[in-house]
Amino acid sequence: MKRTLAIIFILLFSIFGLAACSGGKNATLTGKYTIVSWEVDGQDWLAFFESMSAMADEGGEFNREAMYFDFQSDGKFLMNMSDETGELPQEGTYTVDGNTVKLTAAGEELSGIIDGNKIIIEQKEAGTVSKMVFEKK
Question: pTM of this prediction?
């Protein structure tokens, strides 16, 4: 009986130990996540930028592929929020806790939710709600 209980305890500790360690696989993100949607107060801003760049006389073109986060395995990221005038790169760091990613750049912090191959960032500020969705390609 003691031997059976000892084996059960060993198995339980092994299972709980593996479950605790499995969270480590979510400790980092890697790869490029490109913007697929951006809404501000329910309005589609990506469509707005695309229509504005189509009407611009300068010949600039809005490029969704130029708006991205590129996550490195060392906890750093490169963010680019480009418009028709050129790239606006920003470097920063990130941490992952479960399905939440915390981004820090230029002294500012931002949090997002990891949902499969997507990162969803929602911000509420001064009565305005912004939601950006980035997808890993």
Answer: 0.72
